[in-house]
UniProtKB/TrEMBL annotation:
One of its GO terms (molecular function) is DNA-binding transcription factor activity. It holds the Pfam family FCD. The keyword Transcription applies. SMART domains: FCD, HTH_GNTR. It comes from the Bacteria. PROSITE patterns: HTH_GNTR. Residues 50-117 form the HTH gntR-type domain. This is GntR family transcriptional regulator. Keywords: DNA-binding, Transcription, Transcription regulation. SUPFAM superfamilies: GntR ligand-binding domain-like, Winged helix' DNA-binding domain.
Length: 263
């Protein structure tokens, strides 16, 4: 029998509060009827509250990946606040976070702008993208359900429609959605984060894709090939066509890259 008249150690923990600040009483959790693990800790997940600053931060990151913001475009707080329908404070805080992460830069005149993508940096990033995004496509191939494939097919159709209307903005948004619908199926959060980071760097130059006549006519070719490969369960083919898609886009973008960083 333990102290307190009970042979059950858990009951003892409930009715006796330790004098040591290093020991935790499980009483509040039991009293509330919350599910606990063997150590008396609540198994319930905390409900996350996302502040306006966090939401603004995510919206700006999405914009960088989708080519909404161009290289050297000034990020004017009042304009962004009006665009997103929020006050200036969360936009300012989000911009400060992006500057700290080197996704935006501050010029000598204190303007915050999207960094310029140089030819050298773009070529440095290319083999990393080809390797990681191709790997993600290969890993993802076996994880698609019929419903997932239907969603992917609809995305390819929507991309084709955007191209028919030469709608670059919609194409860029759908292009990102298509790619990440695949990358998320790889089942590898670390790989997904690395790809996310790469797209944050290269996304702002994607608007230039529609300046290339060949790309405008063939931008969806590899998407269709990727879709067919995934439907057939051919992971190697999915990897190959994903890498080819990245390569074709790179060839369209390279002529637009300055040789040196003049910022």
């Amino acid at each position: 029998m333990v102290r307190g008249g009970s042979t059950d150690p858990l009951q003892y923990a409930v009715y006796h509060i330790s004098n040591s600040v290093n020991e935790i009483s499980v009483y509040p959790a039991l009293q509330c009827g919350m599910p606990m693990d063997v150590r008396g800790r609540s198994r319930m997940k905390k409900i996350e509250h996302q502040s306006l600053s966090d939401r603004a931060y995510q919206a700006l990151k999405d914009g960088l990946q989708e080519g909404v913001f161009l290289p050297m475009q000034p990020m004017v707080i009042r304009n962004l606040a009006a665009e997103y329908g929020i006050s200036a404070t969360p936009i300012r805080e989000a911009l400060q976070r992006l500057v700290a992460e080197r996704l935006l830069i501050v010029l000598p005149n204190r303007s915050i702008v999207v960094p310029r993508m140089t030819r050298e940096l773009f070529l440095d990033l290319m083999p990393i993208r080809v390797s990681l995004e191709g790997l993600a496509a290969r890993l993802a191939t076996s994880n698609f359900s019929p419903k997932d494939l239907e969603k992917l097919e609809k995305l390819v159709q929507r991309v084709a429609n955007a191209m028919t209307h030469y709608d670059a903005k919609t194409y860029l948004l759908l292009n990102r959605e298509f790619h990440f619908a695949i990358y998320e199926k790889a089942g590898n959060p670390e790989l997904l984060q690395l790809i996310n980071d790469l797209w944050l760097k290269v996304g702002p130059v994607f608007t230039g894709l529609f300046d290339d006549a060949y790309f405008r006519e063939h931008a969806n070719d590899e998407h269709q090939n990727i879709l067919r490969a995934i439907k057939a369960g051919d992971a190697e083919a999915a990897q190959h066509y994903m890498q080819q898609d990245i390569d074709i886009a790179a060839k369209a973008l390279l002529p637009l890259m300055p040789e040196d960083d003049v910022t």
